[in-house]
Amino acid sequence: MAIMNAQEIMELIPNRYPICYIDYVDELVPEEKITATKNVTINESFFRGHFPNNPVMPGVLIIETLAQAASILILKSPHFYKKTAYLGAIHKARFRQMVRPGDVLKLNVVMKKVRSSMGIVETQALVNDKIACNAELVFIVAEREEKI
């Protein structure tokens, strides 16, 4: 059962279609960990060019999906609520298997360190309980830009 749906996610993070990749949040322990889900479908716009006869989710978009899950975890912290989390660095990224249409990407993020305006998380993207990608991500948190 989802504890956050797509609409609730979009109220927290600034990402919108076509680059809002989290479908729902399965589990959330603020300031500790999150598990979220991305259902990978053939309708994703990036599959038209990556690759037409062999559709594979680009690694950079797997990292982006992990970063969005991490943003939810970070921004659910009372300290960072109503702010924006920007990806500051990617460390130790490893791609271990391809992600294809029909896969369900489970995103696990664990908070490792928090400072006044930044956070470090360990991430894993899994398909069928097998690691597709893992990385350490560094976030910079800033005030949210107001709409004009």
Automatic annotation (TrEMBL):
The active site is at residue 50. One of its GO terms (cellular component) is cytoplasm. The keyword Lipid metabolism applies. The keyword Cytoplasm applies. Keywords: Cytoplasm, Lipid A biosynthesis, Lipid biosynthesis, Lipid metabolism, Lyase. HAMAP family: FabZ. Belongs to the thioester dehydratase family. FabZ subfamily. This is 3-hydroxyacyl-[acyl-carrier-protein] dehydratase FabZ. The gene is fabZ.
